[in-house]
Design brief:
The complex is a heterodimer of chains A (about 110) and B (about 120). Chain A has about 110 residues and is mostly beta strands. Helices cover about 0% and strands about 55% of the residues of chain A. In chain A, strand 5 and strand 6 form a beta hairpin. Chain A is globular. Chain A starts with a strand and ends with a strand. Chain B is globular, with a radius of gyration of 13 Å. In chain B, strands 2, 4, 5, 6, 9, 10 and 11 form a seven-stranded mixed beta sheet that branches. Chain B is mostly beta strands and about 120 residues long. The chains are: A mainly beta (about 110), B mainly beta (about 120). Chains A and B meet through strand 5 and strand 9 of A and strand 5 and strand 10 of B.
Chain lengths: ~110, ~120
């Protein structure tokens, strides 16, 4: 099973700042089969990024994904108030599909 | 508008059973592969089970094999999860989620809470 480790656990930033979230895999993720999700309290997750760098429908271009192999990054170029949430990465290269433990982006 | 609405959660004793349902609307359910994903209180996300659009392919995570059964009724736009021999560690919010291929989850319900406790 591929273990995904996200860092940092919590990111304290102000609106307008840049957020950089990391997701490291325990083994190489082929073909960049990695997605990112956003989850707000009491809500279901929302797909942001798939195939490591493709934005899902309706996702603002301040969200971008990059990386390959074992190291992936989600970048939020300028944080808006609605972006403060928990973010998860997920791999779909091997079974079982696995998620990282999440990074919380909180208001500083 | 795409909607997935789960129901059937509740409080159950260890060793008991529950049947979760998910009703879909706003998209062609019969053409979509579906999953159950759960989230224990204060924890991260865990994929539980997958069923292909025609029900021909089914997968489970190891911890629920032999206890949970996924099924669907395309005529009723519905997905199900029969959960038997429930354990305390099955306590979680259970989400119904649509998947592209068996890759990323692009549509989610709001979840239903299952609590296993005596």
């Amino acid at each position: 099973e591929i273990v995904l480790t996200q860092s940092p656990g919590t990111l304290s930033l102000s609106p307008g700042e840049r957020a950089t979230l990391s997701c490291r895999a325990s083994q190489s993720v082929s073909s960049s089969y990695l997605a990112w999700y956003q989850q707000k309290p009491g809500q279901a997750p929302r797909l942001l990024i798939y195939d490591a760098s493709s934005r899902a429908t309706g996702i603002p271009d301040r969200f971008s994904g990059s990386g390959s192999g074992t190291d992936f990054t989600l970048t939020i170029s300028r944080l808006e108030p609605e972006d403060f949430a928990v973010y998860y990465c997920q791999q779909y290269d091997t079974s079982p599909r696995t998620f990282g433990q999440g990074t919380k982006v909180e208001i500083k | 508008e795409v909607q997935l609405v789960e129901s059937g959660g509740g409080l159950v004793q260890p060793g008991g059973s529950l049947r979760l349902s998910c009703t879909a609307s706003g998209f062609t359910f019969s053409g979509y592969n579906m999953n159950w994903v759960r989230q224990a209180p204060g924890k991260g996300l865990e994929w539980v089970s997958y069923i292909s659009s025609s029900s021909s392919t089914i997968y489970y995570t190891d911890s629920v094999k032999g206890r949970f059964t996924i099924s669907r009724d395309n005529a009723k736009n519905s997905l199900f999860l029969q959960m038997n021999s429930l354990r305390a560690e099955d306590t979680a919010v259970y989400y119904c989620a649509g998947v592209v291929g068996f890759r990323y989850f692009d549509r989610w319900g709001r979840g239903t809470l299952v609590t296993v406790s005596s």
